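Researcher: I'd like a candidate sequence for this fold, 283 residues long. If you have to choose between options at a position, lean toward the conservative one.
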């Protein structure tokens, strides 16, 4: 990324790239509504991981949007779970459940977590307040709105599965009915597009604006609070969608935040050193 791609505020200015354009209440695990009937701009956030400085930087960077969607793992790893939840509530965000969220309130088994992640979630479980518990407990595993589905891991396994490549993505297209599916969990921005029986992967590079067309797409905005693509800047995406499917597009955005502040807070509360150190490198 060149210096010209970054403005003085640290936000990446968009470039445009096309990947091809083709001419009764649900259960607690799934929420379905039908309001995406006109053109909308949706801010898509994921994997905030209790990193308030990163979330605040993203919130300040946001242009005017119609909705904010959050793809789970709101808490875990980071030092400010209650503050992050309160901020999302103030933003009117619509969220789904991630594995770390469920583990923080005891509804998801943390046995699969690595030692640092388990230590962090045990700390988180001890500090979350009543508001945070109530918020997490109400989160669906799957959210559907018009032609958009949202999950944390994958539509096939919303809590645990990682969509890491075209093969896993291809296996998941049969597990959601909408044209678009938003997911997180891997902390890596990417778009998987179904084209002529194949699945094409397009990395979500900082500042890229990608034309999605009318094809079916699995879309990951990257991580706000713990990026893992080699860039420490907070990642999120802007999705433009609605009735005019051929005009759908996504813009991958990055914004700098005060990494040192988050690291200091993590050390102050005794979270594992490795979790703090990795924020400097986006790994």
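Model: Candidate sequence:
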């Amino acid at each position: 990324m060149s210096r010209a791609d970054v403005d003085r505020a640290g936000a990446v200015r968009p470039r445009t790239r096309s990947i091809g354009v083709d001419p009764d209440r649900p259960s607690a695990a799934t929420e379905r509504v039908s309001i995406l009937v006109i053109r909308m701009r949706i801010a898509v956030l994921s994997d905030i991981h209790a990193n308030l400085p990163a979330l605040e930087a993203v919130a300040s960077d946001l242009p005017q949007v119609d909705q904010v969607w959050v793809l789970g793992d709101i808490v875990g790893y980071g030092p400010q779970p209650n503050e992050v939840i309160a901020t999302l509530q103030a933003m009117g965000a619509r969220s789904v459940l991630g594995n770390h969220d469920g583990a923080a309130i005891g509804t998801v088994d943390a046995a699969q977590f690595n030692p640092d992640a388990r230590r962090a979630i045990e700390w988180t479980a001890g500090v979350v307040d009543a508001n945070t518990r109530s918020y997490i407990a109400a989160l669906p595993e799957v959210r559907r709105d018009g032609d958009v589905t949202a999950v944390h891991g994958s539509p096939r396994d919303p809590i645990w599965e990682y969509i890491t490549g075209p093969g896993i993505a291809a296996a998941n297209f049969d597990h959601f009915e909408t044209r678009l599916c938003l997911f997180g969990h891997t902390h890596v921005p990417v778009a998987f597009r179904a084209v002529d029986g194949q699945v094409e992967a397009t990395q979500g590079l900082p500042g890229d604006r990608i034309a999605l067309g009318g094809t079916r797409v699995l879309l990951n905005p990257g991580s706000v609070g713990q990026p893992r693509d080699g860039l420490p800047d907070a990642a999120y995406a802007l999705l433009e969608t609605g009735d005019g499917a051929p005009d759908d597009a996504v813009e991958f955005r990055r914004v700098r935040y005060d990494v040192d502040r988050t690291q200091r807070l993590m050390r102050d509360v005794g979270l594992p050193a490795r979790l703090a150190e990795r924020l400097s490198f986006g790994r």
